[in-house]
Amino acid sequence: MKSSKIELLTEHTRHEIDHWLRKYPAEQKQSALLAALRETQHQNNGYLTTELMDAVAEYLGLPPISVYEVATFYSMLETKPCGRHHVSICTNISCALMGADDIVAHCERKLGIKMGESTPDGRIFLKVEEECLAACDGGPMMQVDHVYYERLTPEAVDAILDKLE
Known about the structure:
With 165 residues, this protein is α+β, with helices and mostly antiparallel strands. The protein folds into 2 domains: 5-73, Arc Repressor Mutant, subunit A (Orthogonal Bundle), CATH 1.10.10; 85-162, 3-Layer(aba) Sandwich (Glutaredoxin). 42% of the residues lie in helices and 10% in strands. It contains 7 helices and 5 strands; from the N terminus they run H-H-H-H-E-H-H-E-E-E-E-H. The protein has helices at 11-21, 33-43, 50-60, 64-73, 93-97, 100-111, 154-163, and strands at residues 85-89, 117-118, 124-126, 142-144, 147-149. Strands 2-3-1-4-5 form a 5-stranded mixed beta sheet, with helices on one face. Helix 1 packs antiparallel against helix 2 and helix 3 packs across helix 4 (64-73). It is elongated and about 55 Å long. The termini are far apart. 32% of the residues are buried. The model has no long low-confidence stretch (mean pLDDT 93). InterPro entries: NuoE-like, NuoE_dom, NuoE_N, Thioredoxin-like_sf. This is NADH-quinone oxidoreductase subunit E. It comes from Halothiobacillus diazotrophicus. It catalyses: a quinone + NADH + 5 H(+)(in) = a quinol + NAD(+) + 4 H(+)(out). [2Fe-2S] cluster binds at residues 90, 95, 132, 136.
């Protein structure tokens, strides 16, 4: 008998997925997929494994390929180990005109890593450049663990990054 992968999802993760499933008609389980993957990623220190994606597929009754497609499309989801704190810097035109490139360069120098890399201690993951984080009037801006920071200066960035444990 084939074993279930659902047990790879913690009770808390299953509870959160169920919360999202209740928001949609029973036949529309795929509508809860993004939230399910986000919660599963959180359970696993910030990234998704194939086994966890398979568990989500089984839990939602979806083909695994449907889950893989979503997991590899959205920039908020990671499929390889990365730092505990996810830092995204908007580099779209509005932020670029307000100094985003200088903020990116400052972060790379300060952390000693490039975009798409994690610090050696696993503390910070500097995500691949973001096209837009929808805070165009507050640029340059970055998002750290889903919290927005706007009108950044190198000094403000230092204060934000230095607080991350």
